[in-house]
Amino acid sequence: MKPADTEREPLPMLAPCRILDTRAPFRWLADGYKDLRAAPVQSLLYGLMMVGICILLGILGNYWGGFVVPLAIMSGIVFLAPVLCLGLYAISAQLERKEPAMLGRTFREAAKRRLGTELVFALILLVIFLIWIRAFSMVQVFMPMEAEPDASATATYHMVMLVVGLFFATVTFCFSAFSLPMIMHRDVDAVTAAITSINAVLRNKGVMALWAAIIMLTVIVGVATALLGAIVLWPIIGMATWHAYLDTIDASAFPRHNAGVTATPRATVTPGDGDTA
Length: 277
Hints:
By secondary structure, this protein is mostly helical. It has helices spanning 24-38, 40-64, 68-96, 103-113, 115-139, 151-176, 179-185, 190-203, 205-224, 228-248.
């Protein structure tokens, strides 16, 4: 007879992913928009908070300048974005469970229940961003020193800057595409979530490149409209990311959280999506 305290089976290193079709990003956007319409006040409040953070960072950068600009941006993205994102995921998760999207509950999910894992994930991003800033400072060796540099030297400098920025942006996207939704959904550590995210992005390169382009477009539109468009667009992207995770990752091998929105299954599920347990 087996002892009562037999240890449970070891968990896998990562959650498997599905191979996506090119229409998937547009389905995610449609689902995100549907969630915004179902909970407009809660969603737009998060949009206002995102815009408020951007304005605050801009004011700080304009006032102090110099090294404070990248430092402020890093701090805002690394430590505040995860909290806001998990709040948006909590809205979608409550709607899926036919529950009212309560603001108090979303804040508890983001700023209390998952805080420890969020901080570990934030530290991973912080390391990437610090290396990113260091790489940009090294790129300055390519800056033309002449008072009137020729077009070739200027083009080389900007090309190197673009390549370095694109490389680190890609690394950051691979790490974070599905990490935070998985942390919200299942009881996993930040490293497992990051490895799962990287694997899923690499196995769906074309679709995820399209998704990254859509995200970048919403950022550009949000900024171009004096951040007014961002109040609506960025929450849609946040909630669409939750649906992207559910559509891509099968995390059924990992345990549910003991408490919180995702401690119970969704009211309606798609067969094979790994959320029926």
